[in-house]
Q: What sequence folds into this?
C-alpha cells in the first residue's frame, strides 16, 4: 500500500502528519503541565484540581 | 492539596481507551476497509480527513459557549469566569490542531485527486478563514498585555463562531471544487455500507482523543491560573508587610 507512487506517498504523509501533529501537541501540553507544577497553597475554589 | 487528578483513574482510562480505539480505527481504515472504486487507496486519507474536519467544526462551539459564559460571568462571578476562560483557550487550541490536520490532509488528497494543492474554493477558503480566526485568537491571548485581553479574545471568539455554519453549508450553497456532501447531500449521496465501520470508528477515535486533549489542556490552564493567583497573593502580602 505504501509504495513509491504519488498516491502511496501522500497516503503515508497524511497518516504520519496526523500522528505527528496530534502526538506533538499532546506531548507539549503534558510537558507544560508537568513543568508548571503545583504549589502548596490552596485556592478558595480548589482551582486546578477539578479534572 | 493533593496533586491534580489528571492522572486519576478517569484520565488514564480515557487516554488508554482513546489510543486503543485510534489503533483499531486506523487498522480498519488502512487495511480492512475495501479499496474505493474510483480513487483507489487515496480514499483512505478520508478516514482521517473527514473526522478531523467534522471535529474542527465542533470544538469552535465549545470555545463559543465558554466565551459567552466568560463574558456573562466576568463581573458577576470572577471564579466561574476563570473556569470558562480555561475551557475557552483549551478548545481554541484543539480547534487549531484539528483545523490544521483538516487542511493538511485535504491538500495531500487534493494534490493527487485534483492535481493541485490548493484552490480558492468556497469550502477551502472558509475553512482556512476559520483556522486563521482561531490562530489570531491564540495570538491575541499570547501577545496582548492589556487587562482586557481575555474579554477581547472572548468577543473575537463569538465572531469566529459565525464562520462555522458558513464552512458547513459552503458545499451546499456553492458547488465548486470540493466534493459534494456525503451525508445529507441528496439521493446520490451516502457512504457504501462496507466503509461505514472504518468511518464510524475513526470519528469515535478522534472525538475521544480530542476530548482527552481538551481536558489535559484545561488542567494545564487551571494550574497556570492557580500559579498566577498565588503570585498575586504573595505580592499583596509583601506590599502589606512593607506598609507596616
A:
Amino acid at each position: 500500500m505504501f509504495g513509491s507512487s504519488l498516491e502511496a506517498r501522500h497516503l503515508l504523509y497524511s497518516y504520519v502528519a496526523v500522528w505527528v501533529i496530534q502526538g506533538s501537541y499532546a506531548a507539549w501540553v503534558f510537558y507544560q503541565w508537568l513543568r508548571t507544577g503545583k504549589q502548596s497553597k490552596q485556592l478558595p475554589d480548589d482551582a486546578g484540581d477539578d479534572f | 492539596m493533593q496533586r491534580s487528578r489528571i492522572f486519576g483513574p478517569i484520565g488514564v482510562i480515557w487516554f488508554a481507551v482513546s489510543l486503543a480505539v485510534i489503533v483499531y480505527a486506523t487498522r480498519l481504515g488502512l487495511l480492512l476497509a475495501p479499496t474505493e472504486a474510483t480513487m483507489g487507496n487515496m480514499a483512505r486519507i478520508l478516514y482521517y480527513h473527514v473526522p478531523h474536519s467534522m471535529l474542527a467544526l465542533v470544538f469552535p462551539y465549545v470555545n463559543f459557549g465558554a466565551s459567552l459564559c466568560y463574558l456573562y460571568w466576568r463581573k458577576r462571578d470572577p471564579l466561574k469566569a476563570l473556569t470558562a476562560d480555561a475551557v475557552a483557550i483549551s478548545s481554541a487550541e484543539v480547534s487549531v490542531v484539528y483545523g490544521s490536520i483538516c487542511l493538511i490532509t485535504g491538500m495531500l488528497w487534493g494534490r493527487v485527486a485534483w492535481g493541485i494543492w490548493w484552490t480558492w474554493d468556497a469550502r477551502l477558503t472558509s475553512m482556512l478563514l476559520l483556522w486563521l480566526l482561531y490562530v489570531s485568537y491564540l495570538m491575541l491571548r499570547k501577545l496582548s498585555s492589556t487587562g482586557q485581553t481575555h474579554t477581547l479574545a472572548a468577543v473575537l471568539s463569538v465572531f469566529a463562531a459565525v464562520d462555522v455554519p458558513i464552512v458547513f453549508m459552503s458545499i451546499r450553497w456553492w458547488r465548486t471544487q470540493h466534493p459534494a456532501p456525503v451525508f445529507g447531500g441528496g439521493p446520490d449521496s451516502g457512504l457504501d455500507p462496507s466503509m461505514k465501520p472504518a468511518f464510524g470508528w475513526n470519528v469515535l477515535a478522534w472525538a475521544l482523543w480530542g476530548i482527552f486533549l481538551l481536558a489535559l489542556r484545561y488542567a494545564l490552564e487551571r494550574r497556570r491560573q492557580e500559579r498566577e493567583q498565588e503570585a498575586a497573593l504573595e505580592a499583596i502580602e509583601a506590599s502589606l508587610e512593607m506598609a507596616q
